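Suppose a colleague, Dr. K., hands you the sequence of a protein chain of 315 amino acids and asks what its three-dimensional shape might be. Before reaching for any lab equipment, you can write down a predicted structure in token form. Begin with the sequence itself:
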Amino acid sequence: MLLDLILVFVSILILVICVLVGVAFLTLLERKVLGYIQIRKGPNKVGFIGLIQPFSDAIKLFTKEQTFPYMSNFNLYYFSPMMNLFLALILWICMPFFSMNISFNLSILYFLSISSLSVYTVMLAGWSSNSNYSLLGSLRAVAQTISYEVSLALILMSFLYLILSLNILDLMKYQKYIWFIVLMLPLCFMWLVSSLAETNRTPFDFAEGESELVSGFNVEYSSGGFAMIFLAEYASILFMSFMCCMLFMGGDLMSFNFFMKIGFFSFLWIWVRGTLPRYRYDKLMYLAWKGYLPISLNYLLLFLSMKIFIFILLT
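The predicted structure, expressed as tokens, is then:
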């Protein structure tokens, strides 16, 4: 029993380290891709074609002087970025392992629970900074995340009705012969857009509206605190890319193609950032409540009725 626990702990540790390395190179990929979109080179000085740039950035950020606002709520101000990164990393525990790491049966429920907790860290980070700009940024982020969590959960339920399970691994079994993107194309696009909104990325990055909020909820953070918020954001982008692969792109964990697909979805996140302008805030809310919510509910009823119909036919 003790040996099993040690092995599980070691597996989680390796997973977290791999995620952090992946995040480091995702930031490099983003800077390179955005550079080429804007017809410039991007980082190319540190190491061969800029490969060591993320590590030099990390050293620079974590060794910088930590500043804090005098009137801030000091404990919460320090605690929020750490909690944000912690939640983004423990989210990865529900990733299925064939070695049965912690491939538990309610992994999708775990994903929904942990991803909704990250709202609190953003809210507390904005509030504890004791700055009007950061408070406004955090309020925007909370409203946006809560709104899109509703549509995200409803879209997810349509997939769950098809597999009748809460285990991420079962998504792979049901897509052996046909991917879900073929069966439910509109829902897949809706999931992708909702994921963009959920991870606070362009064109929905209202929490970090530089034009009106200086830098949003993280405006008072510097050095390590800023780096942790940054790492958490990119870890959640990687995780949402992984979920996209599992939900509607076959989810073939054992093949190399799976990682190519994750890379493609991460690239899509960056491509959208380099291409699309920021959306208007009221339109974002209308899209969630008047667009995605009714459509996802209708799809949910459709798949539920299909399941009931098949069940009646079989019995």
